[in-house]
Structures are given as structure tokens and as C-alpha cells.
Amino acid sequence: MALHLPSPFQAKMKSLLGSNFDDFMNSYHESPHAGIRVNTLKISNEQFRKISPFALEPVPWCPTGYYVEDGARPGRHPYYHAGLYYIQEPSAMSPVELLDVQPGDRVLDLCAAPGGKSTQIAAKLGGQGVLISNDLNPDRTKALAKNLEMCGVRNAIVLNEQPDRIAEAFPAYFDKILVDAPCSGEGMFRKDESMLKYWEASSPLVFAEMQRDILRSAVNMLAPGGTMVYSTCTFSPEENEGMIAAFLEEHPEFSVIPIDASFGFASGETAWLQRHGLAMSEALREQIAGTGRLWPHKVRGEGHFVAVLAKEGEVNRDEEPRSLPHVNGQMTGGEAALAATSRQEGNNSRKSKAELKAARHGHKDRNRKEAAGSRGSGKGAQAFAGDLGPFMEFIHERLRVDLQGHVVVHGSQIYISALPEKERLSQLKTVRPGWYAGQLKSGRFVPGHPLAVALKAEEAARHVNLSSADGEAVRYLKGETLTVDEERIICHPGIETKGYVLVCIDGYSAGWGKWQAGMLKNEYPVGWRWTSV
To answer: What percentage of the chain exceeds 90 in pLDDT?
Structure first.
């Protein structure tokens, strides 16, 4: 059934598109294009193509993006729950590709929920550098955090803050910033008809004011020589080219990096702005023409606008250290002493449980004194007046990976943060201060689900493979207890089969289980479980 588009919207689009208007309107008779993007944190692009359960057709502007057929239902396959791909509208993949994120960058995704672009950024970082993902809506940050966790992201922090408050904590800090701005959403009418209910003729102007404020804060957070991408999913020139024209006049230290038209990007509109009274110099007109649009009647995707903005200045990566210490070696005070007791000097051999228990007991008082001295640190990390020994013991005995970052504790919850300057978060509303490791509970450490899904099979002391083909993986994802023979538990040398097991689906981590006497107790979180019929 054809959409009933508002008359003022149609009139504006006819003014904007002229002879292309009929082609544009005909695009609304076509179905939206479904897409997935391979999560290279978990699997290589090449390997996924070999095992993909779907027919794949490349998205021109995203090397890891693919169109899938209508009815493919990628959300109902175990590989989705194992984080091997993210379901994403194809046009929405373009802003991050144009941001050109490199491993080691400091990146801010300022309007990040539900997290598609943040997971794309994280894949490009490859576990190096730091990603801060923010959204103003506290409810939407829940979906943002879950999507980052499902994709196995280790180096992200999730905030729920106003942009100007983040700017106070991170002046001139980020190498790359994505502003996927809240907008009138005109480009999504075909994909999500419900958005029509909220559209009014005045919507573009309302959102434009909000977008200006966001950009002003973003400017202060971008380091000299940095790159910022501004994107929307609307057709409105007031929110797109008009926004960038005003931005460039207010901030002459920025310039547009022209977008290559070879993948279907159309040049930014300038004639419409001039017809509606925006005086433009030739130099400014050329810059605006270097922005890009994806039109639904010209590409297989929804409507998008993207501008790539470069800030003048020399890139300086030496102002603050970018490498992170190993979790096992970065502790201070009682924690450092505990870490030292858990390893023999010069090698990685493990001590006995009795020795570790004695070490924890001996340093317990010192841990409490240090924690008490650092309480009241604001909205960021809270000190833990207890014993971190069980957490350290789990790392040494159950994992085979050198974790990098800083341990951050909220109550009894333990995170590993990729942010070297932890104090920057002290006054910010922090939803996730880092990679969630688990919880200290009744003198023991309970590993969290996000810890599991970010691990590779060989990084756990023991793991088990479930098949996606015979229903076993789905039963695990539904929360069922499984019968698993002992010979299927793959252990590192010297490790017994009983205990926490990293559960993998066709070799890719999906969660925890506990194995004992032929039974795999299910540790898959209730809120994550498979509910599809």
C-alpha cells in the first residue's frame, strides 16, 4: 500500500528535486532494502562469506556491508546472537565509512543509540584506542550498551550526557567525531511509516536548532587535525546543506572533504538554498557541493545526508599516552601486591588456590583503606571497599589472554576501561565505564555475559562448540540445560573440565555455561534469550 505523504512534504520535495520528483515518488512503491554488516571483531569478512546462511550482495559504500533478501530474517539465526553481524539499513553504513576511523583513534559517537554506527566504529578500531558512545535518552542507552556488548566490543564507554558537559571533560580530545544528528527523519518514511505521525512542516526548523547546539559542543571536543562527520536521515536542506553552510561560516577553521561520487553519492544541493535566500560565495558553494546525499530513487537504500569536516591543525598523538597497561600489571597498592602474588616473577605460571586465598586475605585490609580514601568521586567510578582477589584469580585461572585497561568498580560490578584518564568520567552520567567483566558476590567473582561474548575460543581456559545446524545452539540461546559429553569440553593443558565454560556457536563465543558430570548448566542471561518461534 502506498504511503500517504504529507502535502507540505511533497511540495518541498518537488521544489527541491524538479524533474527527478516523479522518480523519487515512485521509490515509495518499492520495499526498503534489508542489510547486514559483518562484525570483524568476531569474524573476518572473508570467513563470514564462506559460512553465511544468507545470499549476500555487497553494499557499494561499505566493504563489510551486504544486502540480504526479503524474508531472510537475519535476527533469527544463532550467528546474530553470537555477534557475527549487525542488522543495519544500508545507507546508514555510509557515515562511519566516511569518518575513516583507524586503529588507535580516540572516537566519539555523540548521538549513538541504538548503536549500529558505534559497533561499526568499534570494528574499525579493532580493539585499539577508545570509543565513547553517548545518547541523551536514558532508555535508548540500554539498547546502545547491549548492542556494543553483543558485538564483543572491549574498548567502549557509554554515556548518557548533554554534549556540552562532555565537552567540559574532553576538550580537544577526539581524533574523530560522529554527529549522526537527531533530525526530522524524512529519509526513513519508507522504512518506518510510523515516523510520519511525528512530522510537521515546522519539524526541520525545530531539529535544526538542536543540531546547531550539538555541533557547537562537538567543535570543542575535536582535536586539531581531527575529522568530524555530520549526518542525518532527512532530505531537508535546512538540516543538511544549510546547517553545514552556517557551520562553515561560524567556524572557518573547518573545511569540507569532498565525497567521492563513485558509489552513488549525489553532490550536496546548493541551488535550493540559493533560491530560498541563502547568499553563498563561490568558495562556500563549492564546499557545500562536496557534501553527499544518498537518494532512494538513485541507490538501494534510504535517504541520507553526509558531510565530512576537517579541522585545521597538526595532529599530535603524543600529548597523552595512548597505550594501556595490562590488567594484571597496572594495579596500585593492595591490588598491585595481589597481582604480584598471583604470578611467579618472570613467567606466567599459576599459584595454587590456597596461596591466592592467603594473598587475598593478607591484603584485604589495605584494599579497604585505599577504597575508603577515594569514596565520593562523583558520578563516575565508585570505590569498592572489599576484596578484588576473586576477580584476579578468575583472570589468572580461567582466561588465557592479556587484558589491557584499567579496572573500574561500580558497587560490586567490575569493568575494564580503555580510557587512560579515568577522572574525566567523574562528573558524567556513565552507563558503562568500560567492558563489563562481572560481579563480586559473596566472596566470589561471577563473570558477566559481555566478558564472554568478547572473548575468542582460545582465550578461555575451557570452551565447548555448539552447532548452529542441529538446534543445539538455539536450545542454549533459549536458556536450556544441555547434555554435553566430557570429550567435547576443550581445555588448555592442566585444566579440568568441571567449571565455567565459554560456550561457542560454530567456534564463535556466545556466552557462559557451567559443566559438571555431563551437564552444561546454562548461564545465558534471561534478558538476552532467544524468543523467536
So the answer is: 77
Residue with cell 562553515: 248
Encoded amino acid at 104, one letter = G
Active-site residues: which are they? 233
Amino acid letter, residue 252: P
pLDDT tens digits, 106-160: 999 999 999 999 999 999 999 999 999 999 999 999 999 999 999 999 999 999 9
For 376-408, the pLDDT digits (tens) are: 333 544 444 457 899 999 999 999 988 889 999
DSSP string, 407-461: EEEETTEEEEE--S-GGGGTTS-EEESSEEEEEEETTEEEE-HHHHHTS-GGGBS
SS (H, E, C) 367-415: HHHHHHHCCCCCCCCCCCCCCCHHHHHHHHHHECCCCECEEEEECCEEE
**CA–CA gap between residue 182 and residue 232 (Å, rounded):** 7
Please state the φ and ψ torsions of residue 430, each to the nearest 5 degrees.
-105, 115
Q: What are 256-267's pLDDT values in tens digits?
A: 999 998 888 999
Residue 189 CB contacts under 8 Å (≥ 6 apart), including other chains = 3, 5, 28, 195, 196, 199
Query: Where does residue 369 fall: left (phi above 0), alpha (psi -120 to 50 degrees), or beta otherwise?
Result: alpha
Hey, what's the cell of 216? 557547537
